[in-house]
Amino acid sequence: MPTANIYTSGATSRGHLVARASELRAFIAKELSCGERQLQPDEISIRIHENCGSAMIAPLEIEVTAHAYAERSSRSDEICLKIRELVMQLVPQLTDARVWLLLVDLGHSWHE
Fold first, then answer.
1. Among residues 1, 30, 62, 106, which is most buried (max CB within 10 A)?
2. Is 54 exposed, middle or buried (0-12, 13-18, 19+ CB in 10 A)?
3. Domains by residue range for the chain, with CATH
């Protein structure tokens, strides 16, 4: 299950993101879906961390962690840019946002 850790230096950004979290989940699920894996929004875990200090590169930073499917890897920059574009729209007062896609081999701690 992919995760999106969002780090923000302002409460206003956090409020906008909390209010639009379902839209962000759906967008990330769509962008991470590929021929090998179709994701649903409820499979994306979003965590919003506020007041992360003054040493951040941008006022809002996102780290998305997901399984390293080949199709995701070949589109990684495109996926990051699309997520950034959406976040800039969702939080109008943002001056900048940075997005990283970390593609790894994932395990999980539950059985369905």
1. 62
2. exposed
3. 3-104 (3.30.429.10)
